[in-house]
Amino acid sequence: MGNAYGLIEIVGVVAAMDALDKMCKAADVELATWERRLGGRLVTLVIEGDVSACEAAVKAAMKDPILKVVSHGIIANPHQEIKKLVDISASRFKNEDWSNFHNKTYL
Hints:
Blueprint: E1 4-11, H1 13-26, E2 30-37, E3 42-49, H2 51-62, E4 69-76, H3 80-90
Antiparallel strand pairs: 1-3, 1-4, 2-3
Helix pairs in contact: 1-2
């Protein structure tokens, strides 16, 4: 989609959903992947788009978050190894049959 990644690490799944909603509404970005650690207490969202769109999206997510933003960042023109890492993370969700979603464990 673009040539940059925006990253937000936030406490809690609900806060992460709220942050993602703000990011997607604020700029022309898409969710590239997400990770949940520590039993869902820390959620990392990775969005992709143009550099300026990622910057605007991350800034929007940091304004009045439901819970604490632990970390954030922008990676402009990511190296191929970073792109591979994001693709590996996202591959958990691509080409999946979601018709039986409720009976699967993904994270």
